[in-house]
Amino acid sequence: MRAAEELLEKQVVPVSEQIGAGFRRWRRSDLWVVLGFLALAVFVLIRLWIDPNGRILDRNDDDHGIFLFMLAHGERVVFDGASPFFESHLNAPVGVNMMANTGVLALSLPLAPVTHFLGGGVSVALLLTLGLAGTATAWYWLFAGHLVRSRVAAAIGALWCGFAPTMISHASGHVNFVNQYLVPIILWQVLRLREPGRAVRGGIVLGLLIVVQIFINEETLLFLALTLAVFVLAYAAMRPREVREVAKRFTAGLGVAAGVALVLAGYPLWYQFFAPGNYHGQPFAPSDFVTDLWSIAAFPRQSIAGTEAMDRLSVSATEDNTFFGPFGLIMIVVSTVMLWRSAAARSAAIAGLVLLLASMGPRLQAGGVRTGIRLPFGLVSHIPVIDLVSVTRFAMVPATIAGILLALAADRIRESSPARRRRFWIGMALALVPLFPKPVPVVQGDPMPAFLTAGLWKQYVPEGRTLVTVPLPDVTVGRTGQRWATLQNLDFAVPRGYFMGPANPPADDTGSWKAPDRFTSQLLIRVQLTGMRPYLTTVERERVRADLAYWRAAVVVLVPQAPNAVALRATLVDVLGEPESVGGVEIWALRDPSGG
């Protein structure tokens, strides 16, 4: 029995195998597993693949739009020589600090040719698909090559880590969170720092991986760092002598990794926190978006067993970070109990529990009701960097750790009696089958007018001027204008937009999802939402013209499918006169930046 426990310890904390050796042990059957992951990812995104440039992810059309922007920016960096850390063609004339946003440069730059020739919508669909399949494949490599002996156990763990409810939820708009294939590789490299002689070589490799992850998603890197910190502390408490023996070379390797990451990513990180366009904090309090206690055992809405009734337990459709289902939760607990004699498994479970508790915020919420029960997160919620995180996302960590525990338990069950194995696999089937994902829903986007697709806009927008769509590009209310601009790869500059930046600099540098309000932006939003045409005074008309001058507007384009387009048109006519019809839209050509 003791020999089996020692074997499990070695499985949970592998330190002696090379990445090449892991791949050399792959079999032909492993290729079929990976192709299965890819097929499942295509199935989840199939509705978007039917028309990737014409359709929009229905669960989170705003974030679909912002990642179209990120990919258009990457295309401009490669094909136009634009700055990788700053974008001038959105939120003109101020621009956007791309490092202060989720710029995904490690994804947008390699896919720039796809974005350029096939469109940003294709790149979004490709990244979401490869993100799901790639994450599952990376975990399968770690499981099959280093953690478990059974290919079935490896496939179960990888399937959970790549297609868990949290991953399917984020696939409705969060390109950055879906692409997590570096996480198991970084984890493996960190654990290998225990090996003698690995401090320099392993530290350099780890540092390079950290840099790449910074340019995919910093939040994921933060979650991984916090998880490993809790894991190491828990493991040190249980195995102090073992930890003391490896502490020196382990910390030396981390120091090398930190040095490499700082040298390569120091300037981009400085740009993120100190260059123009930086911000502090979020436009919401950490306590606003938390994990509901009852969501842990609920079915996710995007599974075959889920319904929209689960909405009351969720922050949003793209933040279903728990939702393990009742049988899934039972199997996670059963797996943890099976592995409890392993200090490494216990430490992993503790790390998952700590991060799950953090995701619940400063006060417990259950069944959609905020209780008065205080939780530990209230003590750390205002720490810099922590205050930039949407709290419920900490629950992505226990979701991944659950996959690790399920894989290890599925491998361990082979040593049990036939009756116990039968009960285990029945439980596993009851846990996994109801969580099988449904294709993510989409809606048809407003069609692109010939004014843009045929390049007619070039006759009206000279260099240094902007194209202003009405509704103005903005979070939630002006998504069509930003989508049109990004699908044109930001060949023309547009004012405002959906991005992260300071709310009202320099007076207020709190994070905001939009540009500071101006008279015209507030006026047009009011018209769009109410359908009521305002009666403008001479002074108000001059304020509209002043805003157009500030935006250096060359042409104003009315989105014909916009809500209350009639009232918006009448407002523009009141200020700018009658429009002309060009390329399927009505436009107002402005002779000079003053709006005349």
UniProtKB/TrEMBL annotation:
This is Glycosyl transferase. It comes from Actinoplanes awajinensis subsp. mycoplanecinus. Keywords: Membrane, Transmembrane, Transmembrane helix. The chain crosses the membrane at residues 31-50, 117-142, 199-216, 222-238, 250-270, 323-340, 347-365, 385-410, 422-440. The keyword Transmembrane applies.
